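Researcher: I'd like a candidate sequence for this fold, 272 residues long. If you have to choose between options at a position, lean toward the conservative one.
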């Protein structure tokens, strides 16, 4: 068996093991969804800090815990979530500066604190909107919608890019992406959104479906490119090795991290 085939088998097996667990937790309500988000946020933060710093120190583990806390807080204390984020972030900035003031290296301290906070926002705050979606009316449907438009975009972009791709989208960051792939991904997102509407969200109008799918077909690729930019900046191939055949968590959910907040915002404003 070639290496490519072995990798494909690993990807399929990993998906068959992990997907039922994810769906089980999403199905079992807001708290189970928040636990899923907390575990995911911790893993994402660990990968982010490892990419940026290579070797983690105690401040980074505090950032990992803070990232994991955000999805839980969204469900446990929804009315105090915003104020908690402000107070918590302020406390982490103070603790971060204090730690590096005492431990050094002093020239790198401001940048280290900046990355500490960025990791929490990128890996914890963005994914916490998953917890915000689940308690809503038709919350599971909204989550499936976010997942579907993201995954269908990736699949459509890959298929169109392989078949028709000639014009590079952003070769400095991701040489394999093409404008033809972007169009294919957009069509995939729109098609998936209408399928979810038919199955889980029948009250959505066609205009509402497009209002979700079209922005996500742009935000998702931006999230993908942003993670590619991060990896190129620090010269790493994959964000991690936690998922056999798939790489790291960031490699799998980079687009979803940018789509979830938008879907949460849209559902909060227009669906109550």
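Model: Candidate sequence:
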């Amino acid at each position: 068996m070639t290496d490519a085939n072995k990798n494909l088998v690993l990807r399929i097996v990993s998906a068959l093991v992990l997907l039922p667990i994810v769906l089980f937790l999403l199905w079992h309500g807001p708290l189970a969804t928040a636990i899923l988000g907390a575990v995911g946020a911790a893993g994402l933060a660990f990968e982010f800090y490892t990419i940026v710093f290579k070797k983690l120190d105690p401040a980074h583990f505090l950032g990992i815990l803070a990232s994991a806390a955000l999805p839980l807080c969204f469900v446990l204390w929804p009315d105090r979530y915003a104020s908690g984020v402000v107070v918590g972030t302020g406390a982490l900035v103070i603790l971060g500066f204090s730690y590096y003031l005492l431990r050094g290296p002093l020239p790198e301290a401001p940048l280290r604190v900046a990355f500490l906070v960025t990791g929490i926002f990128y890996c914890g705050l963005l994914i916490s909107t998953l917890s915000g979606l689940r308690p809503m009316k038709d919350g599971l449907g909204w989550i499936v919608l976010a997942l579907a438009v993201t995954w269908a975009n990736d699949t459509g972009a890959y298929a169109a890019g392989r078949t028709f791709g000639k014009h590079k989208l952003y070769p400095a960051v991701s040489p394999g992406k093409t404008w033809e792939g972007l169009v294919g991904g957009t069509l995939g997102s729109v098609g998936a959104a209408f399928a979810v509407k038919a199955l889980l969200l029948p009250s959505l109008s066609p205009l509402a479906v497009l209002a979700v799918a079209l922005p996500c077909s742009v935000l998702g690729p931006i999230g993908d490119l942003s993670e590619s930019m991060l990896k190129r900046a620090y010269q790493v191939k994959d964000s991690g090795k936690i998922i056999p055949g798939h790489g790291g968590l960031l490699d799998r959910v980079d687009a979803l991290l940018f789509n979830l907040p938008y879907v949460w915002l849209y559902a909060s404003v227009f669906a109550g």
